[in-house]
């Protein structure tokens, strides 16, 4: 279980990024972390990995506090960062030198990922493209079998076939003991993979908050996504945009009408109406206390 309790953090004095942030994440799921540029997704990952410390409040990952950076904690969490540096060594050497830090690292699993991504052990990391390097890191992260796997914008730089490969590999590497959190702007790439969805939005001009944390089922129970020819004033429409033949809307769903979640429109709705979204989801059991 991952728990942020009343966490405050800011890089600069007097300019908080988070204030009193609460968020609980349970094992067995692939969470999607969405938020506008600068919302603090990478910062949240760095706090979770113990690379930054909260100014106040507490963060717990299982029985550990990341800021203590205990070896038993560090060997059970892996972060695939958005920007990274890899040494000029062959893939095999990279695996040989880093795998020992992760007791559950599975070499056969890593070898299968390398093969699947069309790479070979003998290739030098410095001679790979950005997307190929990213594949090595993603494969390594999956093969660590850590209890917590954080991936910051993992599909950036991946070509189209690799994105579906990525979805398949991640889906195959999650189990009831593992918590995977993926931050992304590429919602179309990951629509079929991430559930629950966590969305950060600006609460007031001063800081960011978790405006939504809900499963896809909870979202479609409360919101209706669809196309209408006209904007009906009797319907509680939270978001609309022009589309071929009318409007694509996101509306409140008091009758629980079925519809298909559109993550991009959900994201826009949450940014436009964070307070209403918080109210609408206030009764879900998985609500992030805000
Ligand atoms: N090392 C740093 N020093 C000072 N401010 C920083 C630092 N890193 C990030 N910030 C600021 O903190 C805020 C959150 O940054 P962060 O990178 O966590 O956002 P993000 O949600 O990951 O953004 P993006 O979607 O653009 O990747 C931004 O306003 C950013 O300018």
TrEMBL record:
Top-level taxon in the UniProt lineage: Bacteria
Family annotation (Gene3D superfamilies): P-loop containing nucleotide triphosphate hydrolases
InterPro entries, alphabetized: AAA+_ATPase, ABC_transporter-like_ATP-bd, ABC_Transporter_VariousFunc, P-loop_NTPase
Annotated ABC transporter domain residues: 2-227
Alphabetically ordered keywords of this record: ATP-binding, Nucleotide-binding, Transport
GO MF annotation, one: ATP binding
PANTHER family xref list: ABC TRANSPORTER ATP-BINDING PROTEIN ALBC-RELATED
Designated name of the protein: ABC-2 type transport system ATP-binding protein
Source organism (scientific name): Spirosoma fluviale
Lineage, opening ranks: Bacteria, Pseudomonadati, Bacteroidota, Cytophagia, Cytophagales
């Amino acid at each position: 279980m991952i728990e942020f309790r009343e966490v405050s953090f800011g890089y600069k004095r007097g300019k908080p990024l988070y204030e009193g942030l609460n968020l609980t994440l349970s094992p067995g799921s692939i969470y999607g972390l969405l938020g506008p540029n600068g919302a603090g997704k990478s910062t949240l990952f760095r706090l979770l990995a113990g690379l930054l410390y909260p100014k106040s409040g507490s963060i717990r990952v299982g029985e550990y506090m990341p800021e203590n950076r205990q070896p038993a904690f560090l060997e059970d969490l892996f972060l695939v960062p958005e920007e990274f540096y890899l040494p000029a060594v062959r893939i095999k050497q990279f695996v040989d030198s880093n795998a020992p830090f992760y007791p559950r690292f599975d070499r056969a699993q890593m070898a299968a990922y390398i093969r699947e991504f069309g790479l070979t052990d003998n290739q030098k990391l410095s001679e790979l493209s950005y997307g190929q390097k990213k594949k090595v890191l993603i494969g390594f992260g999956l093969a660590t079998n850590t209890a917590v796997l954080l991936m910051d914008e993992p599909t950036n730089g991946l070509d189209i076939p690799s994105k579906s490969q990525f979805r398949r590999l991640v889906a195959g590497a999650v189990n009831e003991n593992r918590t995977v959190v993926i931050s992304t702007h590429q919602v179309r790439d990951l629509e079929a993979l991430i559930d629950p969805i966590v969305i950060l939005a600006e609460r007031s001009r001063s800081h960011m908050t978790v405006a939504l944390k809900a499963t896809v089922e909870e979202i479609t129970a409360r919101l209706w996504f669809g196309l209408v020819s006209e904007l009906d004033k009797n319907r509680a429409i939270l978001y609309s945009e022009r589309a071929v033949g009318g409007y694509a809307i996101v509306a409140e769903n008091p009758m629980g009408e079925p519809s298909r979640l559109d993550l991009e429109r959900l994201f826009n709705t949450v940014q436009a109406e964070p307070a209403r979204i918080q109210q609408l989801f206030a009764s879900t059991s998985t609500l992030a206390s805000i």
